[in-house]
Amino acid sequence: MQAPTDIFDPTHYAATRRPLLEAETLPPWCYTSETFYRREVERIFRKVWNFVGHVSQVGEPGDYFALTFACVPVIILRDLAGTLRAFANTCRHRGSALLEGSGNCRAIVCPYHSWTYALDGALRAAPEMKETIGFDTADVGLIPLRLDTWGGFLFLCFDAEAPGLSHYLGDLPDRVAAYGLEDMVCARRKEFMIECNWKLFVENAKESYHIATVHRNTINKYASARSSGYWAEETLGEYVCTFAQHEGSMALLQNDPGFPANERLAGLREAGGTRAPLIYPSTYLACTIDCAWYLELHPLGPKRTRLIHGALFPKDRIARDDFEAKATNYYKRWDITIEEDIVASDRQQLGMAGPFVRPGRFSHREPLVHQIDNWVLDKVLV
Ligand code: FES
Ligand SMILES: [Fe+2]
């Protein structure tokens, strides 16, 4: 189905705007069009608070990592005084990228002509620049970007005007307060490259309809859509959330041994299930009885996305002698089911190619797909 030339005319999306059981899915070009994707980058990812990792990635003074997010090269670091900072990863001389990967440093030295920046962004040295007229090192520090944290997670915002992170998250911190996310440790971080539009993976993460098919031998054995409900909760803030009721941990395959349940949840509804917010636009977080995990998505193009899985356990679990042995069971569950979802999403992207694909209809089990798609339209059509 060819994208129309007036691709952002709201009339093309009227069917998706209808109530769930009368609505159609987004037009297929929303998942394939370069124009639609560029608009998402500009109106969504360059405007909102984006989840970009866990504070443990920059745990010590001098720790840094580089990433490209929404086509912007970025450095995230902890300076020598312990302050977390983000900068454009762009030298103020002639624009070279300064850092790549991750590591620890005392200063940032440009690999091109050795301009040297302190970790607070100030330019400390610029060789051979004495004769340059009106050149003042104080004018050419690294360009700072907004960085904030919540629950042990890093959030980056490119928009100087946007309200703060706590406004963005709304009542999410209260909703998941019982789990004690800020006291959890990220024990493993694993990256995947997926060949699909970021929205396909997000939609998959927030519907229970596919569990009976895609996860028939895994999650469906102990937390099927029918037995567990996956009820959508009412939220205030830029996220949606479900609660699924089930026995045991959502992070283990049936009968695999794990850690004791989080003591903080004793006596609470949370002790009998899993709460899973999707923080707009593209971060899935799941809090179950004994651990938590996140799926962080970085859009790389209309049909390409980086997926990062982070495994979070309460601090004292990591200290146990049996941690590695037991953690293997969790990693196995995540690796298997993530692969199941990647295969499903990549296959969906494949099916969206060509001129014959048409919008579909929703099941009653897909209310949040509809809600997420309408959130995207709210942002891109304005
Ligand atoms: S581009 Fe960085 S020092 Fe020249
Ligand atoms: Fe899934």
The quaternary state of the protein chains shown equals single chain
Q: Report the CATH topology name of the largest domain.
A: Naphthalene 1,2-dioxygenase Alpha Subunit, Chain A, domain 1
Q: How confident overall, as mean pLDDT?
A: 97
Biggest β-sheet strands, sense, barrel? 7 strands, antiparallel
Cofactors, ions and other ligands in the entry: FE2/S2 (inorganic) cluster, fe (ii) ion
| End-to-end C-alpha gap | 23 Å
Overall number of structural domains = 2
What's the total number of strands? 17
Poorly predicted ranges: none
Structural class: alpha+beta
CATH superfamily of the largest domain: Naphthalene 1,2-dioxygenase Alpha Subunit, Chain A, domain 1
Helix content: 10-25%
For the record, the CATH class of the largest domain is: Alpha Beta
Task: Describe this entry's structure for a reader.
The chain is of the alpha+beta class and 382 residues long. It has two domains: 10-48 and 168-380, Naphthalene 1,2-dioxygenase Alpha Subunit, Chain A, domain 1 (Alpha-Beta Complex), CATH 3.90.380.10; 50-161, 3-layer Sandwich (Rieske Iron-sulfur Protein). Helices cover 23% and strands 26% of the residues. The chain contains ten helices and 17 strands. The chain has a seven-stranded antiparallel β-sheet, with no helix packed on it. It has a seven-stranded antiparallel β-sheet with strand order 11-17-16-15-14-13-12. A hairpin with a 3-residue loop joins strand 14 (273-279) and strand 15 (283-287). The two termini are 23 Å apart. Fe (ii) ion binds at residues 204, 210, 214-215, 341. Fe (ii) ion (FE2) is lined by residues 204, 210, 214-215, 341.
